[in-house]
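for the writeup, i need someone to sanity check this before i put it in the appendix. the sequnce is what the collaborator sent (i think, or maybe the updated version? ugh). structure was predicted straight from it, no edits. if anything looks off just tell me and ill rerun, i have time this weekend
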Amino acid sequence: MVSLSLGELDRRTQDLIEQVINSNEPALITDAEQPAAVVIPAQEYALQQQRLSLLERIARAKAELSVGHCHSQDEAEQLIDKWTSNGV
């Protein structure tokens, strides 16, 4: 991901980003009237990444279940105990 400080951007871009931050609403950037990019607050981006990760984990779990890879309740509890006792 590209990272720039706000000071490195031109004034109009700074204003747009400040508006996005203050309103907590995304801004659509277009090129020839076609969507080119979306600017969203960093916290919203982080939340979206967390959601995406969770959805990917759910999809992997469903795929595992569909081929019979699963654990009993007792096995699951033992694994959780093992992971939590190791600080994972």
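The first helix runs from residue 11 to 23. The mean pLDDT is 89.
thx in advance!!
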